[in-house]
Amino acid sequence: MSTKMKKNTIIIAVILVTATALNIVFHLVIEDKKTTNETTVTLSPVFTVRTEEAEVRTLQAYLEVNANIVSGHQVAVMPEANGRLVSMQVGLGSVVERGALIAQVDPSRPGTEYALSSVYAPVSGMVVSSPQSVGSTVSPSTVLMTIAVADTLEIEALIPEREVGQLRTGLKAEIRLEAFPGETFSATVTQVSPVVDPVSRTKKITMRFDRNDSRINPGMFARVKLNTRTYANVVSIPQEALVEHRGRSVVYVLNTNPDENYLNGVPAETPRVEMREVSAGVNVDREVEVRSGLKPGEEVVVQGQQFLTDNAQVRIIGKIYEPRV
């Protein structure tokens, strides 16, 4: 091969290589332009949740304790003479009227005979104790029976020391008795002990029924719901809506304008939630007072919030958001 032909071959090879390189660069530039002109669509996950509205309510704080029904006024009945108890006209649980004959004592001694000494009820009420039996020897210091005045029944309860700061006379209570399931009796606190028992660390309170009921007897067991503090007209939400996030109390609030503040490519009918810090107050029966950070009528997530983040998309159970036309 001549020198001239070798040169021509080299020139042609250089031209082909250069053309190929230029073609690759050209395609890269075109692809880059296409990429920069296109919009990247990134779809975020949509979480299914349930929401409830924040409402203005009155929250009634209360304590629940056990209690006993007792008589506020009891009278011990004793005979006027020494002798043998020969009859008992009434027994434990009997209701007696003032002046009714309740027992008789025979003061007779060997060789002497006396008329029976009658014992009468000094007050109207119920016999709550009857420790003596017929045939017993009694004296004027012997208690034949104890009568509880029926219209002075009281409820006594012991309140733990940690709760005594809420106690005061005049507090209202709801009383439930095992003897009458399904019924509630109203009562009022009439006395609060001035001291805390050093052994049990409790303080005794005394309540009286607002209405007398002859079915209620001393010695009955009671369950007391004592209303302590009233929080009127507060914004409240279900306890489930409250979430602890990095030491803060937060709720996830439904965006009130679901067509706004969306990322590119997200359907306008898909609502989002806002993570918002709130100041929580008292908790009564799983209803939490919100002191600040939330307005009445705003919807908060009460189920499914454990998976949410700020500005997350949600699908609300039982609600359909139509896209704008």
Task: Please explain how this structure is put together.
There is one protein chain. The protein has three domains: 46-57 and 233-316, Beta Barrel (conserved putative lor/sdh protein from methanococcus maripaludis s2 fold); 62-70 and 151-232, Beta Barrel (Elongation Factor Tu (Ef-tu), domain 3), CATH 2.40.30.170; 74-148, OB fold (Dihydrolipoamide Acetyltransferase, E2P) (Beta Barrel). It is built from one helix and 22 strands. The protein has one helix spanning 3-37; strands spanning 46-53, 55-71, 74-77, 83-88, 95-96, 101-106, 117-120, 125-129, 137-138, 145-148, 153-160, 172-177, 185-192, 202-209, 221-238, 243-245, 248-254, 273-277, 279-284, 287-292, 299-303, 313-316. The chain has a six-stranded antiparallel β-barrel with strand order 2-11-14-13-12-15. The chain has a four-stranded antiparallel beta sheet with strand order 3-10-8-5, with no helix packed on it. The longest helix is centred in the N-terminal third of the chain and has 35 residues, at 3-37. Mean pLDDT is 83; it is low at 12-37 and 261-267.
